[in-house]
Amino acid sequence: MPVIGHRGRLLVLFWLSGMLIQPASATENEPVVTMGAAAQHNAGLVVSVVKRGVLGKSLDAMGTVTAEASHVVRIHPAGSGKVLNVAVVPGQHVRKGDVLLTYQDHSLHLVRLEMAKAQAALATAHASFQNATEAYSRARALEGATVSAGETQRRLAAFRAAKDDITARQADVDTLRHQLEEEYNSVTESDKNQTSPADETSAIISPTAGEVQNVLVGIADDLSPATELVTLTDMSSVWIVSDILPQDAAQIAEGGEQTTELVSDRATTLLASKITSVGDLADPATGLVHVISRAPNPDGRLHPGMFLDTHLPTREKTEGIIVPAGAVTEIDGVRTVFLPAGLDRFRPREVRVGAESAGQKVIVSGLSAGDSVVTHGAFALKTIMQISDLSDGD
């Protein structure tokens, strides 16, 4: 049985997989790669007709994820007391209404006592008003007989004073009721889980879905309305802050679409976000200018402090043939695309790239409008060429 060398094994492998590298013909200095239909399917190869267009040049920068200032919630208690339990830790994700901590609310006890006193005073005012009403009615009925006109006027004044006292005592009750219902039961606090009228436990709750940034108290700590308990950040959207040179900042298009690379184990995806501000003053410590964009973060992938590669749009525009960034691959330092050259055959072509932005590249030479180009799967064709070069060197 004949022995098959390394080169022969590679050729058999390519024949079995439906992929072959053909030598250059007499009229072509470039090789032709053959990839069978099954191999094209496995590689996800796509051929598209390209068109001319205009692409804005982008500036590469390092971005840092930062919580939006307006989305940071600093939670304080309504009353004074002592911490009973802390239910969260920094970095924890919480939902709206989740309990963050509980405390024994001494102020709540005092307010309830004040409410009991105010309600008793209101009841007394109502009784006094009833007596004053009856006395005034009798005086009017007997005026000129057994009751003088002066006595009737005195009883009228007492009736009016009793009525005003009801209004004042009712205002006291309403104020305390509002305090109990709105201050001790708000978007950040609840007494709904109390087990009895004497229970003074208040729960600090999350006003929104978000991430706990800081927990500033511990069990048995004393607290008051001035005490900051928890810092919570709504992470449904975040800022991506990119630092660039002042001379570059003048070229950034405010309101333009920035793209940010999100790297995972499976693939690198591009996140689009709108640039909301471009700073005018450089940071004294770094000499760089802040460019801020607001990025959606519904799944919570972005966390404060993350460093990401960003691409900032500039006002500089380049005209040429627009292709997906993945259509261009580099072979031996030369930027290359692949064009169909017959059934299951593809020929590499050198191109010159003018700009890249938002996952696209503009080709300024090497392609024409209407050309058919491999827009997805170019890397698989490049791999075949590189393996073939290795086998030729054996």
Under CATH at level 1, the class of the largest domain stands as Mainly Beta
CATH architecture of the largest domain: Beta Barrel
Task: State the CATH topology of the largest domain.
Answer: OB fold (Dihydrolipoamide Acetyltransferase, E2P)
- What's the name of the CATH homologous superfamily of the largest domain? RNA polymerase II/Efflux pump adaptor protein, barrel-sandwich hybrid domain
Number of helices: 6
Low-confidence stretches: 1-28
Bin the strand percentage: 35-45%
Q: Can you give the helix content as a percent range?
A: 25-40%
- Structural class by sheet pairing and helices: alpha+beta
The count of domains is 3
Main beta sheet: 6 strands, antiparallel, barrel
Strands in their spatial order, largest beta sheet: 4-14-17-16-15-18
Q: What separation lies between the terminal Cα atoms? A: 22 Å
Q: What is the H/E order?
A: HEEHEEEEEEHHEEEEEEHEEEEEEEEEEH
Tertiary shape: elongated
**Mean pLDDT across all amino acids:** 86
State the total count of DSSP E strands. 24
Keywords:
394 residues, conserved putative lor/sdh protein from methanococcus maripaludis s2 fold, Elongation Factor Tu (Ef-tu), domain 3, OB fold (Dihydrolipoamide Acetyltransferase, E2P), 3 domains, six-stranded antiparallel beta barrel, five-stranded antiparallel sheet, 6 helices, 28% helix, disordered N terminus
